[in-house]
Q: What sequence folds into this?
């Protein structure tokens, strides 16, 4: 199911569904950002969490007023630059920011590719981590056979199914809870 067929389904999602999909991936990657922020003393994990929560609130509370452009702009100061960091963690943290930015941009600009971009960012995080553990570049076949990457693809397929439901605040909050994965990120980082 993963690949062209999967991305065709993502592209058919309504704009609000694309937002929820991208935001759910950012939610799942939040521990990656938080850990990098804590260990490197850069970024701002609390601000990342607040930014996630602002968009979840915007999506689930009718009539909520927030300047999403201003929120996104104020968060941009906390996006890590992996070229200025010696920590590998800057890459998964950056990918988490990419997914969060995609979620905001899917509301602000609505280009229609934000969910796909967030999907690629999350997959890229996992693929990069798998190669880091292997201490070498892996072939596409080797990557697709990896347990962690398979789990990521399964998660995204399930996420697509969950966001394909009719719009309802409780359903969106259920997606948020599903995406949080008990506080464990797409590369197995837990804040506990």
A:
């Amino acid at each position: 199911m993963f690949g062209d067929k999967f991305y065709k389904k993502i592209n058919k999602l309504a704009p609000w569904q694309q937002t929820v999909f991208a935001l759910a991936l950012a939610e799942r990657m939040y521990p990656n950002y938080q850990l990098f922020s804590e260990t490197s003393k850069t970024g701002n994990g609390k601000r990342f969490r607040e930014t996630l929560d602002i968009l979840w609130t915007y999506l689930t509370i009718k009539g909520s007023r927030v300047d999403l452009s201003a929120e996104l702009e104020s968060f941009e100061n906390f996006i890590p630059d992996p070229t200025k960091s010696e920590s590998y963690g800057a890459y998964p943290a950056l990918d988490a920011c990419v997914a969060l930015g995609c979620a905001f941009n899917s509301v602000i600009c609505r280009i229609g590719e934000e969910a796909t971009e967030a999907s690629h960012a999350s997959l890229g995080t996992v693929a990069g981590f798998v190669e880091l553990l292997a201490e070498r570049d892996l072939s596409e076949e080797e990557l697709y056979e990896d347990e962690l990457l398979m789990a990521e693809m399964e998660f995204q397929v399930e996420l697509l199914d969950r966001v394909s439901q009719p719009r309802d605040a409780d359903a969106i909050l259920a997606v948020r809870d599903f995406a949080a994965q008990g506080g464990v990120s797409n590369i197995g980082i837990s804040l506990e």
The radius of gyration is 16 Å. The mean pLDDT is 94.
